[in-house]
Amino acid sequence: MDKPVNQAYTPVLSLYEAKKENLIPILLAFQRKFSYLSRDMMQSVSVYVGVPESSVYNIATFYSQFRLEPPGIHKVHVCRGTACHVMGAERLLRNIEKRLGIKAGETTPDNEISLDTINCAGICGLAPTLEVDGKVYTRLDGSSLNRILGKKKK
């Protein structure tokens, strides 16, 4: 038997008709509001639109914009666009991963920092670029990275 819809999610669910065609828009709305999709959220969406929970999970894991764990307090995004790649974004990413002890798509164990990549920051002439908590840093090298991350992770 399905669990009932968690009433805490009613404000989000009520924005959409309870149809399976609305599954992705509903998941996107949850992602915007809560920054991730918990199991309880996915169960409630499953019941609401009338699809198996496994279908909701399959969609949530297929699309990279969905997170299944809460993000860290600080969000770090490394651009992996062509210009950034040519200018050293992969080296930058590996440096950050080593420094934080996590891989892209993960959050530090203390929930302080989440590390992700983006396909293109759209400022190719200033590559490589990094976004930290919405602030964009450009033309990065090892010393500038230490200054930026030093503020976030002691």
Automatic annotation (TrEMBL):
Q: Which cofactor does it need?
A: [2Fe-2S] cluster
Q: Which UniProt keywords apply?
A: 2Fe-2S, Iron, Iron-sulfur, Metal-binding
- Stored Pfam families: 2Fe-2S_thioredx
What domain of life? Answer: Bacteria
Record text on cofactor binding: Binds 1 [2Fe-2S] cluster.
Q: Name one GO molecular function term.
A: metal ion binding
Binding locations of [2Fe-2S] cluster: C79, C84, C120, C124
Which protein family is named in the record?
Answer: Belongs to the complex I 24 kDa subunit family.
Record's protein name: NAD(P)H-dependent oxidoreductase subunit E
Whose protein is this, by species? Dehalococcoides mccartyi
Record lineage: Bacteria, Bacillati, Chloroflexota, Dehalococcoidia, Dehalococcoidales
